[in-house]
Design a protein that fits this description.
The chain is built from 9 helices and 4 strands. The protein is mostly helical. It starts with a helix and ends with a strand.
């Protein structure tokens, strides 16, 4: 399978997961029995990748089986690509943060990290938000201020760590970022 096919299939799977999470969250009247029946059908594989935390919070982080790598491939970038999700969030060449209707009452913001300029602008926005916080801060709080997806935030924070501008403590959801 070519790299393009792998990236394309990963983007489709991520979008299917996000749609399923969104649909389930908008149907709070479903019983556990109904969910169990749904999980046995064609949606079974998707159900097996969704955690209760993601369902409750609406978070669209990568499933446990597809952890993000933090090596030379690009900090926080999943194996097999993953830029397709970011590519769909903003028009080409637009490095500014643009308002995008979405969860949390339309306050979600899309950012473009596909270009070096876009990544630089997003990294700087993350740094300034961390600076303004004045205390160790989690990625979720930073995303709330500057927008973007959890994948984009993790990649941007990893670039700032690599540049020596910030540090981190903790692990998983308990990770907090501070100025270096």
């Amino acid at each position: 399978m070519s790299r393009f096919e792998t990236t394309f299939k990963a983007a489709i799977a991520d979008n299917e997961r996000r749609i399923l999470i969104s649909t389930l969250r908008s149907s709070p009247d479903l019983t556990l029995g109904e969910l169990h029946k749904l999980s046995k059908g064609t949606l079974g594989k998707l159900f097996s990748e969704i955690t209760l935390g993601q369902l409750i919070s609406g978070e669209d982080a990568a499933p446990a089986g597809r952890k993000a790598s933090v090596g030379r491939r690009g900090a926080g970038r999943p194996k097999g690509g993953g830029e397709a999700k970011a590519a769909a969030s903003a028009p080409a060449g637009d490095a500014e943060v643009a308002a995008k209707p979405g969860k949390r009452g339309g306050k979600a913001k899309a950012v473009n990290t596909r270009t070096p300029e876009g990544r630089g602008a997003y990294d700087e926005a993350l740094f300034k938000a961390l600076e303004a916080a004045g205390a160790p801060t989690g990625a979720g709080a930073l995303i709330g201020k500057v927008g973007g997806t959890s994948l984009q935030a993790r990649a941007g924070l990893a670039r700032l760590i690599e540049a020596g501008r910030i540090t981190w403590t903790g692990k998983a959801r308990g990770t907090k970022y501070s100025l270096a």
